[in-house]
Each structure stands twice: as C-alpha cells, then as structure tokens.
Amino acid sequence: MVQIEELRSAFADRLKQALAARDIPSWGSGARISKMVGVTPKAASKWLNGESMPGGAKMLALATALKVRVEWLEYGKGGMTEETSGFDANVEPTPGPVRYYEYPEISWVQAGMPMEAVEISNVASCEVHPSDAWAGPNGFWLKVKGPSMTSSNGMSFPEGMVILVAPGFDVESSQFVVAKMVDTNEATFKQFIWDSGRAFLKPLNPSFPTVEMDGEWVLVGRVVDAKWPRSVL
C-alpha cells in the first residue's frame, strides 16, 4: 500500500511539473486537465492530489496534451521531453529552484459557495498570491477578518493576514481549517479539534467561544499557508 501511495505521489509531482512547464496555472488545473483528456474534474483532482493515477490510454492522452514523454510522466524515466531524455544518467542533476504556485484571493462569500460554483471567470480579476505550498487545483487565499484567531502566545493570525485554503485535503486535530454553516454558507476560520469522537472549531483568542461541529457545519478545506500580503508593506 505504501509503495502504491508513493507512486501516486511521485506521479502527482511530475504532473504539476508538466503543468507548470506549460504555464498552466494551479487554479483550475483540474478543470483544464478534464477537458484535455475527457475525464471528470473530480478524477483530474485525484490525479493532482496523488489519490489515483490514469490508466494507459488516459496517461498517453495526458502526456500528449502536455507535450511530455509518457515514460517520464508515468514512471519518472528519462527526461520530461524528447529534448531532455538523452542526459547522462551517471550525472546527478543539480537541485532545481523552489517551485511556487499562484492562487487567487477570493471573498468569504465565495469561500462558502460550492467549489463548482466558483468559476475561473469569477476569479480572473482577483488578486493573486504565490506560495511554495501546494493547495490542490482549487486552492484559494482568504484575508483574515476580526480578532478571533489572534493570540498573544504561539501561533497567531491577526486581521489582514492571508491564509491559503486547500479544499478536500485531509484534516487532523489541531490543524487549521475553514468551515461553513450548511444553511447560510457562512464561512469561518478556526482550529480543528477532535476530542473523544467529537469535532470542534476553536478560536485562538480565548475571548471567543469554541463551537462544536454538528450537522450544521461542513469543512471547506485545510489551511496550508499563511502570510502578510505585500500590500501591507
């Protein structure tokens, strides 16, 4: 099982590398892949997240669309393209630069909407922030509002910081998440706590109450990065 997971993860890394080489932005890449090879956006997202790999025909179609060698895309053998496949295997390649991904900063109203409702056209005019953290094909930034996640000790997210949200990522206790109320679609940023079979949304500011996640709440995504935007400097 571990070997299969490692193969899928390595394939996902190469797929992201191929997308970046074609100047295909991270945001909406799942939708673009689905159109390239005729699969559902959900299937494409699983490829990008390392949850599954395409079969032979789809793998070939994907490699052809991205103009990379199928042996490289599937197994990591040789170079990415025909031009780079003849390098000396005895020469260890130098580490490449850190890769950055760009994601749009959307509104809290959009964050509460279903992901399929946040069309690429709706975020085309949004401010974009880079990150070296992968947030999936539908990742997005949100600007922190209010003092509920401000703490005088340890981790703190003051108002005005931006957080990178990865929809659909697995969440463990003590990690930070964005969740929304089912009835109102109102989204909130809190620390996820799992205790004795119960889930809670905990603010870092003790002046605000901890809320139990019942049937009225669903997770939007896990926070994988946070920083001050350049606009505050």
From TrEMBL:
This is Helix-turn-helix domain-containing protein. It comes from Pseudomonas juntendi. Signal peptide: none annotated. One of its GO terms (molecular function) is DNA binding. Residues 34-73 form the HTH cro/C1-type domain. InterPro entries: Cro/C1-type_HTH, Lambda_DNA-bd_dom_sf, LexA-like, LexA/Signal_pep-like_sf, LexA_repressor, Peptidase_S24_S26A/B/C. PANTHER family: LEXA REPRESSOR, LEXA REPRESSOR-RELATED. It comes from the Bacteria. CDD domains: HTH_XRE, S24_LexA-like.
